Amino acid sequence: MKAVLPSRRGPVGMLLAAAVLAVSVACTPSSDDGTSASSCVFLVDYQNHEYSDVANVDFTVGDKLGPATLPSCNDTPDDDDDAQPPSPTTAYAVKGVDPSIAIAVGDTPSDTRLVAVHSGNKIPPEVKELIRGS
């Protein structure tokens, strides 16, 4: 894909050109060999709830809750590759948030990310409070 860049000169033109280039590159995921790469949504199954990733949050990890699972991923079902198998992870409480709403997951408490149960496209209010800048 060839980007058509404006002919403005100076800082504004340079920023616009950089933005157009970044968007065109970001829309084309690829692997090391130049072919399309898969990109699954980060999901977690824990105690019959499905949680998804929440970015830009500040949270405090609480007690270890137990095992959780990263479900299998097969975002390219028409190719001959096998789906990414489910993998185990550990669930931790998030201080101030009920585990039925949000948990932290990772191999250790210092290597966790926050995931939350979403209702449609709505983020629970308890989790919105943790998002930086909100």
Give the helix tally: 2
Q: What is the string of helix and strand elements?
A: HEEEEEEH
* Helix coverage percent: 10-25%
Strand segment count: 6
Largest sheet: 6 strands, antiparallel
Low-confidence stretches: 1-31
Short description:
This protein is α+β, with helices and mostly antiparallel strands. The protein has helices spanning 11-26, 125-128; strands spanning 43-46, 49-53, 61-70, 87-94, 102-106, 112-116.
Any overview of this molecule?
By secondary structure, the chain is of the alpha+beta class. It has 2 helices and 6 strands; from the N terminus they run H-E-E-E-E-E-E-H. Strand 1 and strand 2 form a beta hairpin. The N terminus is likely disordered.
Keywords summarizing the entry:
134 residues; globular; six-stranded antiparallel β-sheet; 6 strands; alpha+beta
Topology:
Layout: H1 11-26, E1 43-46, E2 49-53, E3 61-70, E4 87-94, E5 102-106, E6 112-116, H2 125-128
Antiparallel strand pairs: 1-2, 2-6, 3-4, 4-5, 5-6
